[in-house]
Specification:
single chain, alpha/beta, Quinone Oxidoreductase, Chain A, domain 1, Rossmann fold, 2 domains, 6-stranded parallel β-sheet, 16 strands
């Protein structure tokens, strides 16, 4: 089968498109005939080697972290296999999913994934639209709901509202009954208002800390450069959740990182928590995990027309390099999609 992969860390020129073995479906897995997959920063950060302190799989490393497609084969228990029989999917089902952190490769014609990470594709979405959802959707749900405790009536600031995470986060927070402010350039105002943002801060001309106050939650998708200003917008006890940078100590431990990486993480997180405490706030980091049941929750919101996909651009599989180049600019409006259609 045709797939995108790399054999050495580096820039986009290291990406290869070529033949790879078709994956064998194991017990408890679905083999998906991929139709589309989304480009996420974790893909090109993996390519650059930015994550090899935490994740260092053997070469060739296949690219792609989520996607949508059609169930082509179902793994059943056999004497030499481990897993559970799959009962809630059948061949021909249209599905979407986010794969495990150590098991990438959705930029390919076929991909095998544990059934518990998969959900039926929203009926009112195309494969391209559905492929844009899993990674950002789970990131937002887990960050806002689990980490920050968002409820109806929460006041939430979402940085970079026009990005892949931001466009989903605005819609998800509004669907949950939150009051939403976001930062973006002036030219994005029409889109973000349509998505439901209550306040849009033009970061070129406004300092967010001079405009907003008494917020419950900040979702940071930009990094430490916005932390001090963000803390000034929070009420006492408010929470800043970051989806960038060094993970928390528990997550680093889960990755079985070495002593040096664990030490760096501890020192970094101590600094982050100390800074938050100066403002009477809390700092939390979140690294998304795959979860099919949570995708079902998201599907219900999509089918209720409370969330729509925002697509920046699409590229065929043999143009992954160009898709990465577009993503790296940071100027995309919504998600960038790789298509595997023949």
């Amino acid at each position: 089968m045709k797939a995108a992969y790399f054999n050495a860390y580096g820039g986009t020129e290291k990406v290869e498109i070529g033949e790879q073995p078709k994956p064998k479906v194991l017990a408890g897995q679905l083999r998906i005939k991929m139709q589309a997959a989304s480009v996420n920063p974790i893909d090109w950060k993996t390519l650059n080697g930015d994550l090899k302190a935490l994740i260092k799989p053997p070469f060739p490393i296949r690219l792609g972290s989520d996607g949508a497609g059609i169930v082509e084969s179902i793994g059943e228990n056999a004497g030499e296999s481990i897993g559970e029989n799959v009962t809630n999917f059948k061949i021909g089902d249209e599905v979407y999913f986010r794969c495990h952190k150590m098991d990438t490769g959705t930029f390919a014609e076929y991909f095998c994934v544990p059934a518990e990470l998969v959900a039926h594709k929203p009926k009112n979405m195309s494969f391209i639209d559905a492929a844009s959802i899993p990674l950002v959707g789970l990131t937002v749900l887990q960050s806002l709901k689990e980490k920050a405790g968002m409820t109806a009536g929460s006041k939430v600031l979402i940085h970079a509202g026009a990005g892949g995470v931001g466009t989903f986060a605005i819609q998800y927070a509004k669907a949950c009954g939150a009051y939403v402010a976001t930062t973006a350039s002036k030219k994005r105002k029409t889109l973000l208002t349509k998505l439901g943002a209550d306040e849009i801060i033009d970061y070129h001309n406004q300092a967010v800390e001079n405009v907003l106050s008494d917020f419950d939650i900040v979702l940071d998708t930009l990094g430490e450069s916005v932390h001090k200003a963000s803390y000034k917008t929070l009420k006492q006890g408010g929470v800043l959740v970051s989806v960038l940078g060094i993970p928390d100590n528990e997550t680093v431990a889960d990755y079985d990182a070495n002593f040096i990486v664990k030490l760096v993480a501890r020192l970094h997180n101590r600094k982050m928590h100390r800074q938050a405490a100066k403002y009477g706030a809390k700092y939390k980091h979140h690294l998304m995990y795959a979860n099919g049941a949570q995708l079902v929750e998201i599907t219900k919101l999509i089918e209720a027309k409370k969330i729509v996909a925002i697509i920046d651009s699409t590229f065929p599989l043999d143009q992954v390099q160009a898709a990465f180049a577009r993503s790296i600019t940071g100027r995309s409006q919504g998600k960038i999609i790789i298509t595997m259609n023949e």
